[in-house]
Amino acid sequence: MIRLLPRDQRFFELFTRAATLNVEAARALRELFATTMDKRSYLVESIKRVEHEADDITHELVTRLDKSFITPLDREDIHLLASRLDDVVDRIDGAARRIAIFRADHAPTGAGILADVIYRATEELLKAVQVLKNGRSGVMINACIEVKRLEEEGDSVYAEWLGRLFDEEKDPIALMKWKEIYDTLEKTLDQAEDVANVLESIAIKHS
After folding, report:
1. Helices (H), the chain
2. Which of 19-53 are b and which e, b meaning 16 or more Cβ less than 10 Å from the residue's Cβ?
3. Does the pLDDT at position 54 exceed 70?
4. Which of 73, 86, 125, 152 has the greatest count of CB atoms below 10 A from its CB?
């Protein structure tokens, strides 16, 4: 049914760009946890630049929505999808900033694993967004199902490695730092699942 709706290709282009920025930020976050401390500042700043660009895209989407008489999707869905995509990159930026602010030491293995799960989830969201304008609801729903599976995988990783952190970390300050970073990573996956829920709802409406 999406094919029968009036098309404003710019909305779809902006959504695709926002989802692409999520992937870029997640890739940099994964590198951040794998790199040496002397290279972290560049990656943190790179993520911040991506986050600023994502904010600009969200602003353009909302502004365009306010000025459009006819939209290719429900207005509420456009606003919600724009907001939820922006939430993901905000959380990624939050994790990166905590690494910098806390001057955290070498990252525990679990943090890198979680960052990789986040990256894979953003790739699935991009797949779903890219076919939004074509109404390929099957592709969208399959990608959303995979995001939810990845969120569950992330929950398991979070529980296991947070437990290890409390068992193995003897420095209480380092424990506090990495617990907060772990929490932020887990919340990032929750935000990715929120995007998947919005996309799944859109797919069902127009299937």
Report:
1. 9-34, 40-67, 75-102, 109-130, 137-168, 172-205
2. bbbbbbbbbbbbbbbeeeeeebeebbebbbebbeb
3. yes
4. 125
